[in-house]
Amino acid sequence: MNDDSCKAIAAGIRHGRRPHGIVAVLMPFSAQGAPDLDGLGGQLVRVQAAGLSAAVNMDTGYVQRLSAPQRAAVLALARDTLPRAPDGAGAFVAGGFVAGAFVDEGTGSLADRYRREMDTIEDHGGTPILFPCPDLRALPEPAVVELFRRISDGRRAVLLFELGEMFVPYGRIYSLPTFTALLEIPSVVGLKHSSLNRQAEWARLALRDQRRPDFRIYTGNDLAIDMVMYGSDYLLGLAAFHPEAFAARDRRWQDGDARFFALNDLLQYLGAFAFRPPVPAYRHAAAMFLRLRGLIECDLPPTGAPTRPDSDRAVLADIWQRIEAELAP
In the predicted model, is pLDDT for residue 260 greater than 50? Predict the structure, then answer.
């Protein structure tokens, strides 16, 4: 970026703004390889207590590896654990939860499959976020816009999801003209952007500010969590490691507390370490971290999922202790 671009970005820092934080909660697994719903439920309670929102059936929740009944069990758990969002457009910001509308090769058109998942999520009190899939990746971008327009029509609130290929092979980051078209869909109230690229996200923020200021861009950049300083909100797998620390960081930014930077730096150190290639192995790092904290019983990932070496545990333990020291009164 040139000097003028850097100056424009610096001038756009949003001091005193409290970001809306959504935690992509981790699905832990038992030693027998079964989803640990008790461990997931404990995370939901802690996210709510921290004052953040929860997202279930996301990449951090291993949604691609869950069966339809298992995904339904997650939705039921979220419904029974978290308060239901009040009525009104965008009410997911004030309560309820977000859930990935994940579709596979089931029967019916792609639109019908997404609609069924969205209906189920809404029936449970959640807000759907349209999870990528191979069939969606195969569509030309104008057809994607039309699909999202049709399946979102008349709904209270829908979130979209740009997910880079470093997370899943069928991920996709749309062109800026397509992003601009997505801004014009009334029921789409926000988008999670996971390109791990600051410039791409800054460009989207600029377009958002020009065309639809109430539209929320949720950064999925676990390598640049300070994007909240520039007007992004966040929906992060990294936030699942320590929701309380993210909530404290957000309060410090809102209050103009200079200690924001020290805590943000520690959390970013954690993100850089956990999300190094291969990126999907961050989920194993999250399980290690949560077990170190005594919050889940087992840190084994499901069979075949990418893993981190045991040597990571000492580094994660050190980062955890540094975060706790920074949070101490």
Answer: yes
